[in-house]
Amino acid sequence: MFKAVVFDMNGVIVDDERIHQESWRQLCQKYGFHLTEDDFKHKVFGRTEADTFTYLFHKQLSRIELQQYSSERVKIAISIFKPKLALTEGLLQFLQELQAKNIPLAIATSARKPYTDFILDGLNVREFFKQIVTAEEISKGKPDPEIYLLAAKRISIDPKDCVAFEDSLSGIKSAQAAGMKVVGITTTHTVKELDIANKIIKSFKNITVEELVVL
User: Fold this and answer.
1) How many Å apart are CA 152 and CA 106, to the nearest integer?
2) For 49-107, how does the pLDDT look when each residue is reduced to its tens digit (9 = 90+)?
3) How far apart are CA 178 and CA 8, in angstroms?
4) Using CA atoms, how far apart are residues 128 and 137, in angstroms rounded to an integer?
């Protein structure tokens, strides 16, 4: 039986994957790289920035280099997203329902802390989450289960008793490898592409707490 919920952030709490796509395009244009739609699906969405930069540069960047490029890309993303910042459809009511039932909530995001802070504080939803795990705190990005295992450990709940919400294939694989059931949300991929998830929804208006019990 599920006892906790762990949310990805990008594409789940906010529908911002296309924002990130545009920020990556602008950064790549500046440095002479090109990312295809397939690259975005398999090398960007759900991955850490470190993994994506390694793919682009064909080498592992130093901590200072990573910080420089990451900060530049995050500033671009924030400038694009700030005027239209909003929670995904139905999420606030769902968070309130979970909170009313005293279900612990956590975030396991491939985003770095500055962008995570921008989202959670900009939308005033930080209070809902007992723990927040960002990219700086892990050594292996999704689809490795490290981030979901850490999130479960932080809230003191066995991963098999957690349900994760994800929008990316790498994120679904990460949560399932940790032992969690996963609800896929179609902000980034189609229903067909997310068929490895335990349940698929189009928005949080299509899910109730009771439905998580029977996953």
Assistant:
1) 8
2) 888 999 999 999 998 999 999 999 999 999 999 998 999 999 999 999 999 999 999 99
3) 14
4) 20
For the entire predicted model, the pTM comes to 0.84
Q: What is the pLDDT of residues 124-164, one digit of tens each?
A: 999 999 999 999 999 999 999 999 999 999 999 999 999 99
Rounded Cα distance, 22 and 41, in Å: 14
> Can you tell me the distance from the alpha carbon of 177 to that of 13, in angstroms, rounded to the nearest whole number?
22
Alpha-carbon distance of 27 to 76, in angstroms, equals: 8
SS3 21: helix
CB 180 within 8 A of CB 6: yes
Burial call 181-201: b when 16+ CB within 10 Å, e when fewer:
bbbbbbbbbeeeebeebbbbb
Tokens of 182: 């996963």
6 DSSP β-pair partners: 106, 164
H/E stretch holding 12 reads: none
- Residue 202 and residue 185 in contact, taking contact as beta carbons nearer than 8 Å: yes
- Are 16 and 122 in contact by the 8 Å Cβ rule? The answer is no
